[in-house]
Specification:
It comes from Branchiostoma floridae (Florida lancelet). By secondary structure, this protein is α+β, with helices and mostly antiparallel strands. It has 3 domains: 89 residues, no CATH class; 103 residues, Rieske [2Fe-2S] iron-sulphur domain (Rieske Iron-sulfur Protein), CATH 2.102.10; 191 residues, Naphthalene 1,2-dioxygenase Alpha Subunit, Chain A, domain 1 (Alpha-Beta Complex). It contains 11 helices and 19 strands. The strands form 4 sheets. The chain has a 7-stranded antiparallel β-sheet. Strands 13-19-18-17-16-15-14 form a 7-stranded antiparallel β-sheet, with helices on both faces. A 3-stranded antiparallel β-sheet has the order 8-9-10, with no helix packed on it. A hairpin with a 2-residue loop joins strand 4 and strand 5. The chain is globular and about 75 Å long. Fe (ii) ion binds next to loops.
């Protein structure tokens, strides 16, 4: 019988035990195949209170098997943010993407209904829509010409003479669940995952709507960054109660009132609120935030929202690999703000704000990439939480850990 070791909150036996040969304690290296995925998932305890808890192990950020598990479970069975509504505002507008190994297309059909499909031809699996976004009357596969209506139905398939047991009705593009939440478009590849999303996120949506979120905002532009880090580091960085701002964002620190920061964390989202600095009206940089309250929010798993001054930016955190994440940022301004400012002043304000926002994002990406490199060190496995301020990341890890454990059983 092997010795008992503490792994997460469960005692398991060393591998010499014939009863539980896959459970073992290994400190480093974590990215090897010497520990099972199950062991790594269970290293994070869901029940330990925050003042005693340790964070998820480094393997959650560095091990490709954990990444694969996340993509098969978290990013299939939850509502995942993939775009913004202005990309599909008019009939015929579409955009495409890939979640894990599943290419998809989102489109507003001719009846003004928002739809999403697996972007794979039913004939030979060719990618049907190969543009990133655009406008279409129908979708035609470039391989053999099979054509689909925007509602997914197969409308043209050539040279079918002699085929038996074939129904065009049953050979349309396979549908994917799609919805909007505020200005964000979300898809869910497996439909039975999150029926409670609406109810559980509605307090956050209502709060955001009081300041302008679903309505009254004009899309200004999109910016895309690729960061060399795991997607979760970007989530946690946004959830850390602004405690990194004075170190990482020295210019941003001048225009926010850091002591006013408050955090609320629930199962599906976390929300941080704070105030702009009182001197903000006197500088162009300060106007970006203003003096009114700002909101930083994260909706599980991959949506971040920043609402500050007249600005809203939505961030889609799209995992590309274990240590690669695409950040798609859409910037919106209050319609009333746009209408009440001259063209020249507006152009200058937008340019200055985007420059400052770009600086903040590059500072965030740089620090998250540095953490990613640190996570591969043999000296680090788990960290600790600051109980007074880090319940946002803690709740995120509990929910994520719950999802991963469910995923192990699938
Ligand atoms: Fe930051």
């Amino acid at each position: 019988m092997g010795r008992l070791f503490k792994v997460g909150c469960a005692f398991v036996r060393h591998r010499s035990s014939v009863l539980t040969p896959i459970l073992q304690v290994v400190t480093k290296p974590l990215s090897t195949t010497s520990t099972s995925v199950t062991t790594e998932v269970h290293k994070f305890c869901l029940e330990t209170p925050i003042d005693e808890a340790t964070t998820p192990p480094a393997s959650w950020y560095t091990d490709g098997r954990l990444h694969d598990l996340e993509m098969r479970t978290v990013f299939r069975r939850n509502w995942v943010a993939v775009g913004v509504a202005n990309q599909v505002a008019k009939p015929g507008q579409f955009f495409t993407g890939v979640l894990g190994t599943d290419p998809f297309v989102v489109v507003r059909d001719q009846s003004d209904q928002l739809r999403a499909f697996h972007n794979v031809c039913r004939h030979r699996a060719n990618i049907v829509v190969r543009q990133g976004e655009g406008q279409a009357q129908h979708f035609t596969c470039c391989y053999h010409g099979w054509t689909y209506r925007l509602d997914g139905r197969l409308s043209k398939a050539l040279r079918l003479r002699g085929i038996k047991n074939f129904s065009a009705r049953e050979n349309g593009l396979k549908p994917v669940a799609v919805r909007t939440w505020g200005p964000v478009v979300l898809v869910q590849l497996e439909g039975d995952g999150r029926e409670d999303f609406e109810e559980k996120t509605s307090p956050l949506l209502q709060h955001l709507d009081t300041q302008g979120f679903t309505h009254g905002m004009r899309h200004i532009c999109r910016r895309i960054y690729d960061a060399k880090c795991n997607w979760k580091l970007l989530v946690e960085n946004a959830q850390d109660h602004n405690s990194h701002v004075e170190y990482v964002h020295k210019d941003l620190a001048k225009i926010v009132d850091l002591p006013s920061t408050k955090v609320q964390a629930t199962e599906l989202y976390s929300k941080m609120t704070g105030q702009g600095a009182t001197e903000n009206e006197q500088s162009t940089e300060g106007q970006r935030y203003g003096q009114a309250g700002y909101i930083v929010a994260n909706v599980f798993p991959n949506l971040a929202i920043n609402r500050y001054g007249p600005w809203l930016d939505t961030n889609l955190l799209l995992p590309l690999a274990t240590d690669r994440t695409r950040i798609v940022m859409d910037y919106f301004l209050e319609e009333d703000f746009v209408k009440n400012i001259g063209d020249k002043e507006l152009a200058e304000f937008v340019e200055t704000s985007l420059k400052d926002s770009d600086q903040v994002q590059k500072e965030d990406n740089d620090i998250c990439e540095s953490v990613q490199r640190g996570l591969t060190s043999s000296a680090y496995d788990v960290g600790r939480y600051l109980p007074a301020i880090e319940h946002g990341p803690h709740r995120f890890h509990i929910f994520l850990g719950t999802e991963l454990r469910k995923g192990l059983k699938l």
